[in-house]
Amino acid sequence: MTGRSLTSAHEPSRSPGPEPTRNRALRAARQALRVLAVELGTPTEPGTPLFGSIQNAWLRRLPYLVAFAFAVSLLPTTINVLNNDYGMNGGLTGALATAQTVPLLLAVTRPLQAWWVIFAADVVCALALTGVDGVVGRAWPWPPTVIVGYLALMLALSLRERRRTLIAVWLTTGVAGILSEAITPEGSQSTWVLLFVLSGVMLMMGATLRERGDAQRKLIEQETISEAERARRTLLEERTRIARELHDVVAHHMSVITVQADSAPYRISGIPKEAEEEFGSIAATARESLAEMRRLLGVLRSEETERYGGPEKAPQPGIAMLPKLVEATVRAGVPVELTLPENPVALEPAVDLSAYRIVQEALANVVRHAPGARTRVSLITGTNGLRLTVLVVNSAPPAPSTPLETTGTGHGLVGMRERVRLVDGSLDTGPLPNGGFRVAALLPLSPPPSSASPLSAKDSDSV
């Protein structure tokens, strides 16, 4: 009882303050060592050569050539320096020199593993040099050859490993130098500070170059993705626009069918009752189809269009309106010659609209990219009367003029291809040897029966 009470009485007199602080310090030290071990023991992409993702074959071989040049030049130089200058034993000299230089070849694919071998060999070499007489007046713990090889290794390491690993390597190099101060031979010239500073500079430079290259690659990838997304959005926008115009064309015909079916019993006398019921069924079906098309079209109409006036009510243009279009283009400063078929051509609404839109977009491109260029617009019917050729050719722009736009959105050619594809035609575009440009579309005078109506239904259903 007395002993127990004495012990309890003395316990409050002990100072509990330093114990938690010491524990926290030990815990922080253990955590730091654990992080250091993880970073130094977890290489990034082991086995993947430096510059392995570069397409140029010579650049891919460059790390191997550099590593081979360093290894071949440093191996005999290190043996000569350690043996002749420092007076180290010949067998130990060869072993240490090999361990310090040959792993540079491994640094091309596994720089962190190469660092472990070279760093350990450098430390053993520093310890071995403490027992030789030639160290007096010479560099220690890192001879000049060790510094050169270590800096080359730092460059390879910085091009591969993450930043935390590089910091761990750099700190380990500094700690080894600081600990060497305790056994520094008398008369030697300390080089650990020099290696510590130079290795830090090399690691920082290499990491900066690597991060800049990674940023550029990511930027290129993002631009590629953005370009693909922009092209996809352009295609969808153009298809939506075509679907709107197709609605106006088809809606007109559906309205005519509805009116004709409803008025047939009044216009034609003596129609049997069964025929009247059939006409009524046709009219009801046409009205239902027209209502369904309008509901589907509501998905395509933009909010602004619905808010500020509803669907467009202007009639869809055709080749009959090309003279007005050419006149407006001439007023914009582009000399245009228009050639239309001598005899009137009866075109299906979709073909008529496609021909007009192709000429319209081609002339808009001339105004934007080749202002002032002489342009010829020709619409020619084939000898068999089944095809319509739409040809828009412009020369190179006059010398003083400059393009209003140097880059395009891609809407023009995408729209032309979609319209030609809509009516089962063909399109040929490209630059001319004289600096001009050519747009040639071959359109059927009437779309194939198998594709005309299904296309309209397909576009309506898809929206």
Descriptive report:
The chain has 14 helices and seven strands. The chain has 463 residues and is of the alpha/beta class. β6 (426-431) and β7 (437-444) form a beta hairpin. It starts with a helix and ends with a helix. The model is unreliable at 1-15, 306-311 and 450-463 (pLDDT under 50).
Brief account:
With 463 residues, the chain is an alpha/beta fold.
**Residue share in helix:** 55-70%
Reading the helices and strands in chain order gives: HHHHHEHHEHHHHEHEEHEEH
Count the E strands.
7
Pick out the low-confidence regions. Answer: 1-15, 306-311, 450-463
Q: Taking Cα atoms only, what radius of gyration do you get, to the nearest Å?
A: 41 Å
Give a quick account of the main beta sheet: strands, pairing sense, barrel closure. Answer: 5 strands, mixed
In terms of DSSP E residues, the strand content is 5-15%
Oligomer: single chain
Cα distance, first to last residue?
93 Å
The rough form would be described as elongated
Instruction: Assign the structural class, choosing from mainly alpha, mainly beta, alpha/beta, alpha+beta, or little secondary structure.
Output: alpha/beta
Within the largest sheet, what's the order of strands? 3-4-5-7-6
Mean pLDDT: 81
Number of helical elements = 14
Q: What's the structural blueprint in terms of helices and strands?
A:
Layout (H helix, E strand, L loop, with lengths): L1 H9 L7 H24 L15 H29 L4 H12 L9 H19 L9 E2 L3 H15 L4 H18 L8 E2 L1 H76 L5 H28 L2 H5 L14 H10 L4 E4 L9 H21 L5 E7 L5 E8 L16 H12 L3 E6 L5 E8 L4 H14 L1
Parallel strand pairs: 1-2, 3-4
Antiparallel strand pairs: 4-5, 5-7, 6-7
Helix pairs in contact: 3-4, 3-6, 4-5, 5-6, 6-8, 7-8, 8-9, 8-13, 11-12, 12-13
